[in-house]
Amino acid sequence: MDKLTDIRYLKGVGEKRAELLHKLGIFTVGDLLRFYPRDYMDWSKITSITAAPYDANCCVRAAVNHKPRGAKIRKGMTIYKTVATDGEALMDITFFNNKYTAEALEAGEEYLFFGKVGGNLRRREMTSPLVSKIEGGARLKPIYHQSAGINSKAIEKLVGQAYQVRSDYFTDCLPESLRDKLCLTEVNKAIHEMHFPTNEDTLSEARRRLIFEELFLFQMGLMRLRGNRREMTPVRIERDFTDEFKRRLPFTLTGAQQRAISESVAQMTSQVTMNRLLQGDVGSGKTAVAAALIYTAAKNGYQSAFMAPTEILAAQHCKTCLKFFENTDINIALLTGSVTAAKKRDIKAKLAKGEIDLIIGTHALIQNDVEFSRLGLVITDEQHRFGVKHRGALSSKGEHPHTLVMSATPIPRTLALMVYGDLDVSVLDELPPGRQPIETYSIDTAKRARAFNYVKKHLDEGRQGYIVCPLVEEGETELAAAVEYAENLSKGFFSGYSVGLLHGKMKPKEKDDVMARFAGGEIQLLVATTVVEVGVDVPNSVIMVIENAERFGLSQLHQLRGRIGRGQYKSTCILITDAQNEAAQRRMKIMTSTTDGFKIADEDLKMRGPGDFFGSRQHGLPEMKVAMLTDTAILAEANRFAREIISDDPELQKEENKTLSEAIREMFSSEYVMN
Ligand code: ADP
Ligand code: MG
After folding, report:
1. What's the CA-to-centroid distance between 471 and ligand 2, angstroms?
2. CB 222 within 8 Å of CB 422
3. Which residues have C-beta within 8 Å of that of residue 170, sequence separation ≥ 6?
4. Any atom of ligand 1 within 6 Å of the Cβ of 286
5. If you ran DSSP here, which 8-state letter would residue 424 be given?
6. Ligand 2 midpoint to CA 231 (Å)
7. CA distance 542 to 538
8. What is the pLDDT of residues 378-417, one digit of tens each?
9. Is 0.70 topped by the overall pTM?
10. Residues in a beta bridge with 276
11. Given ligand 1 and candidates 242, 247, 278, 284, which is best to mutate, with the most ligand atoms within 8 Å of its CB?
12. What is the per-residue pLDDT across 172-210, written as a single tens digit (0 to 9) for each?
């Protein structure tokens, strides 16, 4: 029997059992052994009856006075009662319908009882405790995820059976030298510890090893499969045109922008493909960094593609670039879904002929018939909005073009490593000068009128503002609600002001139109749904009211708030909510106490737990069994050693790395779509 042996070869696993196990993802003996317990019951610390806590599970060693007596209390319900003692105190024990366990207890014999001890000081009691023989009973016992028809205990038994056959199913995928260096437990020992821990320390060592393995394979996999790290590119960016570009700007670059540009250009002028993540909080000026690189690429004769997740954003970037590149020979085109068919054909033809130097657009850019003649640089804005599937699609239209992905969702560096693998990272950790801090308040609906008056005051001073209503998500009724909400405001509280509405169900053209009128100052107050969440830049807007603020996650609130505080005026964000629950209150508290996107992202992570980021749902990545996002120290270590090994043996062809290479393939198999 080896790890690939079908689970049906285990004693007691027939067709039916096998099917139940399949539901848990267990097909082979190896799957079973890698099916780690989700938790443990600590039977190793034995307490006396008197010392047993009232509110927590514990393990009591006691002898039963007499065989439990059964009494039928009603149809289908028999209770069994006995009394046990640890020589110091008495404890009543009751089982409901559990004939099997009850009748196995013998008078005068000692057992371990696990559960909560209730009752009072004079006489304590345990109801439906778990029971174990003394021998081998006082240990950490595994608790497995179970499914209907197969419980935790049954799984434990099967694991035990597998180990009766042999104890070395796995070949260690971690090279021995690495294991030695990091004092990592050998794989078979570690896995055995997971199921049958010797004690808490050895268990935690086993976990550390398995977490390391998981994160290490994951990192290696990303590095290998994306593989762009050391790839040479035929793109020849000979000269840096940043200085020339800077002279065109209406402002001076911040130190952070300058650094990000230098780091990028240094890489682009080498002959190794750039593969970089530009992280910057909202408003940190990522677009200017992108434009600088595009400028240098264009001046070196290369085309650039700049992709954004929404039409509004693509249009905005187009406008920005048109301004930055005014009176140059750089030809710019905008390609989005709403461009007419004839225009699209024209753009695509010019692009293929190399007559367009910069194409800006949405998903439309990755369609099959979009071709480039000399694609040298690919930039993706708000990267996290695109699925893994879309990521490589644009780059594959050129021959190893340099890539820059920009993200305004500041995610902790460690997470960036996880999700983006072996990217180089530039961080814009400095806002352009003169930015006024945003003050944020959280109020309840009773104070809404006051908030609106405050908005009016700003509009009267010539500023602009947003009111975010979260009402439009799916479906017409909610859409109607948003329309009505906006109408009520424009006819009621804000009559005499110019109020616009922006929502997700609008046609791209209509959205553009509204945004243009807002950017131009014609619309003073923009009532919007979350479509304003990403990237929209109107520096004159200084106030934002967010209705039903409790409905948004932290990162989303931060993104929304990032629409203000972008100019030289002091900005205010008012969160309206009546929600009293703890989670909502905590989010409000974080929002009102900081505007630091990294801090907020950290908090967001803590509140959401790791499940949200791992797993295929969000990023299309393989799922982690033991590792969590909070395992950052191990992750950093894993990353370091993964880099080391890859640079030593890029194709993992050395004998010592064979098992490693196989393990990676296994982890990244099937559903994971790489591009
Ligand atoms: P984000 O990083 O959120 O995408 P943007 O690129 O939209 O930020 O820039 C936000 C605003 O800051 C824009 O109006 C832009 O013109 C302005 N800006 C960018 N860099 C600077 C700078 N160095 N000095 C002053 N303003 C700047
Ligand atoms: Mg942006």
Report:
1. 25
2. yes
3. 3, 30, 33, 187, 188, 191
4. yes
5. E
6. 29
7. 9
8. 999 876 666 555 667 888 899 999 999 898 766 666 666 6
9. no
10. 404, 424
11. 284
12. 999 888 999 999 999 999 999 999 999 999 999 999 999
